[in-house]
Design brief:
Elements (H helix, E strand, L loop, with lengths): L15 E12 L22 E13 L5 E3 L11 H10 L3
Antiparallel strand pairs: 1-2, 2-3
Length: 94
Amino acid sequence: MENGQVVCPSCNNSKLTAKYEAKYIYSYIIDTDAPGLKNKYETLPFMYDKRDQVEARQYIECDTCGAKYPCFFSQNSIGIDFKVLQKAIKDNQM
């Protein structure tokens, strides 16, 4: 992690990707036309009545060796803080 660059401690490569996996349950109220109160003539998957997030996982993954480093990305900030990336990788080294 020199010169503003984050590197994978497993393979020393800087090709990293921040990933956010999430699982949601989408609910559509059954009515007389297409399912969901927001759907009128056809069922559109993005026109749900309720959405609940049931799982979430955030991590940094090395594109070269596949090593994964758990990390939390705040949903309230713009971009990802370099110090957060450094800390996530440093704290999760084996």
